[in-house]
Amino acid sequence: MFFVKPEKQMKGIGRKLLSSALTCAKFDTVTVSASLSSVPAYKKYGFELKGNIAESAGLVYQPMEIELNKSI
Predict the structure, then answer these.
(1) Structure pTM?
(2) From CA 32, how far away is CA 22, in angstroms rounded?
(3) SS3 category, 60
(4) What is the DSSP letter of 11?
(5) Which end of the chain, N or C, is more open, meaning fewer C-beta atoms within 10 Å of its C-beta?
(6) Interval 48-69: pLDDT, tens
(7) Which run of H or E residues covers position 15?
(8) In this structure, how many other beta carbons lie within 10 angstroms of the beta carbon of residue 4?
(9) Which residues lie across from 63 on neighbouring strands?
(10) What's the angle, vertex CA 71, arms to CA 66 and CA 72, rounded to 5?
(11) Residue 1: how many CA atoms within 13 Å on its side-chain side?
């Protein structure tokens, strides 16, 4: 999980953090369990919906993935 404080959002911080993390990935496809409120941000970064909304340990999430040959 990663979060950007609401007062710091919309300044490119999340994009830079995610981009940096993806450079360390050892696979061609990266998946996330996105909170429902973060789905629009992940879509903006190039992630696509994969599967149905689910719940684990009380957390509701949307599975999403990105192929790393796509840039964010």
Answers:
(1) 0.81
(2) 12
(3) strand
(4) S
(5) N
(6) 999 999 999 999 999 999 999 7
(7) helix 13-23
(8) 17
(9) 33
(10) 80
(11) 5
